[in-house]
Amino acid sequence: MLDSLSAQIFLLSLPVLAFSIVAHEVAHGYAALKQGDDTALMLGRLTFNPLKHIDPFMTIIFPIVMLLVHGPVLAGAKPVPVNPRKYKRFRRGDIIVSLAGIATNIALALICTVLVAVLGRIPVIPSAESTQTLLQAMMGWGVVINLNLAMFNLLPVPPLDGSHVLKYLLPPGWAMGYQRVGFYGIFILLLFLNTRLLIWWMTPAFVAARVLLIGGAQGFAPLLPHVLAPWGAGA
What we know:
Helix content is 65%, strand content 0%. The protein has helices spanning 4-34, 39-42, 56-68, 90-121, 129-153, 161-166, 172-180, 185-193, 196-214, 224-228. The protein contains ten helices and no strands. It has one domain (4-232). By secondary structure, it is mostly helical.
């Protein structure tokens, strides 16, 4: 069962999380299109319609489980299909497409930071105070969620985005074996969730979120301490 605070956090973060993971996937598809691969476009995946990107486990079940165990608010969408054989330059295209989603999440985190600061400094209109507070809280979660998504996708575990970059730094024989790990990627990630390794890996995202949010914290919603606390689990 979700307690009242967890329910609040879930309701505030859900719209931002949904938009962020969809933007991440659309960025992959658009970057692939620019590299010469129109697969995502032809399959109708270059859209912000969330119904086109829902994956039952990664989009719905996984974030709820993470919230229940007070882990980082993370989720994933159904991967946008790409065909690297269509890239104008295979290696360059693969790296650009892989990093496009991460770059998009970082950009969204910076945009949300600006909005947190703006909403915290504009005069409060009594009739719209609750709406302003709600929007600021959502933007605060936008910072945390997008930095979490960027850092999580940088994990060098196939098939996450970070693995598509790391494989080019390995000798060819090692790279082939490394990519085969992708068949067991979900099991490796589940193992990560049960160790301190994930907390260690994700720490830079939370440090960055604290730095970005503190500057715009004036007038921030009462949930600010929970946004800034590691894993969103209280001050």
